[in-house]
Amino acid sequence: MDTYDILIVGAGPIGIACGLAAQKAGLSYVIAEKGCLTNSLYNYPLYMTFFSTSERLEVGGIPFVSISAKPMRPEALEYYRRVTISNHLNVRLFEPVEDIKRTGDDYTITTDKTTYKARHVIIATGFYDIPNMLNIPGEHLAKVNHYYKDPHFYAAQKVVVIGANNSSVDAALETYRKGADVTMVIREEGIGKRVKYWVKPDIENRIKEGSIKAYFHSHVKAVRENEVDILTPEGMVTIQNDFVLALTGYQPNFNFLEKVGITLSRDAKKYPTYNPDTMETNMPDVYLAGVVCGGMDTHVWFIENSRDHADKIITHIAGKMRE
């Protein structure tokens, strides 16, 4: 079995950046991805517009040209796909990593298809795969979705949207404009402060005029086939309902990190242990890159401020291999 210098877990933008940096440094590598290329971006809403400009989403110094300053999901998919294919990155798609074990000075990485050996491992798995659950009666019903894709599906339906950040606001506005009867349930006093600045006035005005109903300081307590119970400051309210979009955020795969041996903080944030100068974890020769570094603080790291993780990691690995 050949031993790679690096195995990269995850073929999102940061995993791709790590592959480009490894290739440039002349290191052998393979990228294992459990889904399609940039799997998380693929599962974003169809018409999502990025908060960042295209140049801040670039990886490997390769220009990202978009029609508008802030690209949309299809443009990002096109960019990262072309970067991957044109640079002949060694990517294995639809091949989830199941285990990573230390064997002597190297690591043995087991996927659902084969086994690899590598001297170093980079985990760039993002955070979008595991939704934060509500843990309420009825959450298991088919009408409850933790991901939102296309507003047309909800036309002429009574939709409850849980949350007040970007994904929830986009879903509320888009489904409303496709003819849905939309009710937002928000645990805070208002729309989230991190909502895109060009969208925030739109949702606030729709709520103010009554086009979209909103319950603030409120929680969904139970879901049934045709109803939803909402606990509001004035008491329990039951409304008719066809679908629930529980867009309450997502989290990294902490079980996977712990299985590898990476130490997490004992508090609710579950920060993984790593050296911010090199991105190496408490496990020797295992590195973290991208959003996964933030634990439950998934709003701290983005493509634009974590793409330099790739250069930090590859510089450190290359330096060790020269010693």
Task: Give a short overview.
The chain has 323 residues and is of the alpha/beta class. It has helices at residues 13-24, 39-42, 73-86, 166-177, 200-209, 254-260, 303-306, 309-322; strands at residues 3-9, 29-32, 91-92, 97-103, 106-111, 115-123, 130-131, 144-145, 158-162, 181-185, 213-215, 219-223, 227-232, 235-240, 243-246, 250-251, 286-288. It has 2 domains: 3-130 and 250-322, FAD/NAD(P)-binding domain; 133-246, FAD/NAD(P)-binding domain, CATH 3.50.50.60.
Main sheet makeup:
7 strands, mixed
Strand content: 15-25%
How big is the Rg? 21 Å
Structural class based on helices, strands and sheet pairing: alpha/beta
Which architecture of the largest domain per CATH? 3-Layer(bba) Sandwich
Helix content: 10-25%
**Uncertain regions spanning at least 5 consecutive residues:** none
In CATH terms, the superfamily of the largest domain is FAD/NAD(P)-binding domain
User: Helix tally?
Assistant: 8
Quickly count the domains: 2
- How far is the N terminus from the C terminus? 24 Å
Explained architecture:
The protein is of the alpha/beta class and 323 residues long. It has two domains: 3-130 and 250-322, FAD/NAD(P)-binding domain (3-Layer(bba) Sandwich); 133-246, FAD/NAD(P)-binding domain (3-Layer(bba) Sandwich). The protein has eight helices and 17 strands. Strands 1, 2, 3, 4, 5, 6 and 17 form a seven-stranded mixed beta sheet that branches. Helix 1 (13-24) links the parallel strand 1 (3-9) and strand 2. The relative contact order is 0.16. The model has no long low-confidence stretch (mean pLDDT 95).
